[in-house]
Every structure is written in structure tokens, then in C-alpha cells.
Amino acid sequence: MANSTVLIESLPTREQEKGRERGSDFSVLSRRMADAGLLRRRPLYYTVRFGAVALALAGGVAAFVTLGNSWSQLFVAVALAVVFGQLGLAAHDLAHRQVFSRRRPSETGGLLVANLLLGMSYGWWMNKHTRHHANPNHEEKDPDVSPDILVWSRRQATRAEGLPRFVGKHQAALFFPLLTLEGLNLSFSSFKALRSPSVKRPVLEGTLLVAHFALYFGGLFTVLSPGKALAFIAVHQGLFGVYLGSVFAPNHKGMPMIEEGMRLDFLRRQVLTSRNVRGGVLVDAFMGGLNYQIEHHLFPSMPTPALGRAQDITERYCAELGVPYCQTGLLASYREALRHLRSVGEPLRDAH
After folding, report:
1. Does residue 262 have a pLDDT over 90?
2. Torsion from C-alpha of 192, 198, 202, 207, nearest 10 degrees
3. Which pTM value belongs to this model?
4. Are 337 and 249 in contact (CB under 8 A)?
């Protein structure tokens, strides 16, 4: 596993930087990817993948209507949690223009999938995720490591107050239970962001969000009794949050944090703060290609089916440069993330 010491040692020296442009190492890698044809769009792949997700969603809705007011609906809730997770991954790929090269169809697809089908603001998430990609694991600039509830570094722990200070003491144990609230948090944050400049079309996005929840809650409380409807929501939203968190947690959690003043070129900033997850076809499907996190961060618009081959090229190139390249299994990635959470929360436990 990479650590801060390795990160510092892997920084290019002043002599190495002399006579070459910033980012030239990445330029070489980018040419290799282009020469291998890995940046081309894959319309057939996305047609099949999105078609399968659409069929799964339609099947889930049909099963819901057929079963009626039954506790068997909780099995439908479990299945739809997985479908919603796949919809989230579809929205992610649309946002990165992996599906369409032009902005308009990407945005249209993103609004329909994120706002209408998921109940999450596309504009809010795009702004947040773009800032994350620009500065992954940067304590001051990456919104994904801001100390809202959890703390991600010892420096954040020493400054924590309120809820982060309370939760941070036992955040490793609380991490997965807290993920059950992530789906609801995404929706709450989306409505809250409608008043923010980050959402460029608040009326359109708000209308789509209201339409989503009118259909969602209207369908649930029409078909099910209030108790069954609430149980369905708890299972569906809880497992949806756990699914999303399980996909995104291995990518950066437990990797080196970047502090203000650290000098990293683009390639090293993305590689050193990201972790790949091995696992084959099943992990690829479960994580929607985000298990190739290093390659995704280097080439955000690269279509998912190209990432496996890109991984081989990137790993060999990093070996040429002497840049640490982190890759591990899925369960090991969770252990590393939880170990990191426990470690950075230590100052809070010691203070107690």
C-alpha cells in the first residue's frame, strides 16, 4: 500500500523537472493510449449495458406491481437497490462523456438518469465530482474528504468539532452502518443544492427531482400499507447507499492525503492517491469499471471496456518511471480503508 513517505520520495527532483514541461510524463502515456485506440467511444457496449439496466428496472417495477401489498416486496427492494446502484454508475459514465462525446446528449442522459430515475441532482454531483477529480485526496480542495461527518487525516481529527469529533472516535466501526444513509443524503443534498450556483438549471432539475419522488413515494404508498412502504424504503435506500459506498470507498480511502504546498504533476497526483481493485469480470460489473480507478482518474472520458487494457499499459509505464502503483483485492481494499479510518481517528480517542 502506498503511504505518504513513498509519495514524497516519488516526487520528481528539481533536476528531473529541468528541461521538460510539467505533465510531459502524462503526455507520453496519453499518446500510448491513443495509439492503442483506447479513447474511442464504444456505442455497442453502452447500448447493451444500459439496455440491461433498463430491463432490470422495468422488471423490478413489474414485480412490484404484481406482488401488491406483500412482505415479499422486500426482496424487490433488495433487487432495486442493486439496479439503482447500476443507474448511479450509468450517470457517472454519462457525466464523464464516456458514452457520448458531445455535452448536450451527455447532459440530457445524465439529467434523466440522475434526477428522474435516482432522485439525485446531476448538476450538484457534477460540480462536486469535478472538484474531486481535479484534486483527489487533497485536504483542502477535494469535497470527498471534507470532514463533514468522518475525518480523513490526523490533522482533520485534531481540528474536528461537533459531529465529526463524536463520530470520528469510532468511525471505522461506524463506516458501513453510516452508508445506509448515503442514498437519503444524496437526495437531501440535491434539494439543498438547488439554491446553489453549482446547479445551472435549478427549475429543470428541481422539477425532475419532484417528479422522481412523486412517482417513488406515490407508488409505494398506493400499493403498500404504510408499514410495508416504510420497510421497503428502509431496505431499498439503505442497501442502495451501502452499494454506492462499497463501490467508491476502495478507490481513494487509505491512500496518501495531499496537503497544501505539496508539488505533484498530474500523473503522480492521480496515480499516488488512487487504488485499483483486482477481481475479474464480477468485480468489473459490481464496480462498473471504477475498480480501474487509476486509469479512470488519468483518462476520465475513457469508456469502461477499455480500462482493463489501459491498466496494463499504465502499470508498465509507472514501473518505467518508478512511480508506485497500488492494486489490491476487493476485501483487502476495504481492510485498508477501515484501517486508515481507525488510524486517523486515534487523536480523538486519545483526547477522550
Report:
1. no
2. -60
3. 0.89
4. yes
